[in-house]
Amino acid sequence: AAVPVHLTLNGIPVTAEVAPNAILLDVLRDRLGLTGTKKGCDHGQCGACTVHLDGRAINACLRLAVMCEGQAITTIEGLAQEGRLHPVQQAFLDHDAFQCGYCSPGQIMSAVALLADPRVPGDVGSVREAMSGNLCRCGAYQNILAAIQDARL
Ligand code: FES
């Protein structure tokens, strides 16, 4: 039987009736219409499904929706405010930090979380390490790193 899960989704209270075994990624995309969050591997390897759960980056493919009861979720759709791109989104555009773009939402969500995390030092090696859960099959890593370092300023 479906159970209700209450979320604050991109700042808006939402209630969804979900199966107890429904995966957050599928609920976001298929039930709530937020298809900006991508499904790549569906088993925690690629980072395409990265969203923020109470401000922390998580893989939405590894999380049951019911585990998020009462929590705040931010997806790529929630980053731009008042018609303006988030600075990290703008930096990705400025640096051509994508080719096909499929990994970009996850890359950007991870980048926003790491730039907000005072435990992650700003050197390139630390940023690479912090971003290592986000794969880019096109190999746009240099431009992704440049965009993140630019957005830090
Ligand atoms: Fe979740 Fe690949 S789809 S990590």
UniProtKB/TrEMBL annotation:
Keyword Metal-binding (UniProt): yes
Top-rank lineage group of the source organism: Bacteria
SUPFAM superfamilies linked: 2Fe-2S ferredoxin-like, CO dehydrogenase ISP C-domain like
Keywords for this protein: Iron, Metal-binding, Oxidoreductase
A Pfam family matched in the record: Fer2
Protein name: (2Fe-2S)-binding protein
Residue span(s) of domain 2Fe-2S ferredoxin-type: 3-79
Alphabetical list of InterPro entries matching this protein: 2Fe-2S-bd, 2Fe-2S-bd_dom_sf, 2Fe-2S_ferredoxin-like_sf, 2Fe-2S_ferredoxin-type, 2Fe2S_fd_BS, Aldehyde_Oxdr_Iron-Sulfur, Beta-grasp_dom_sf
Gene3D superfamilies according to UniProt: 3.10.20.30, [2Fe-2S]-binding domain
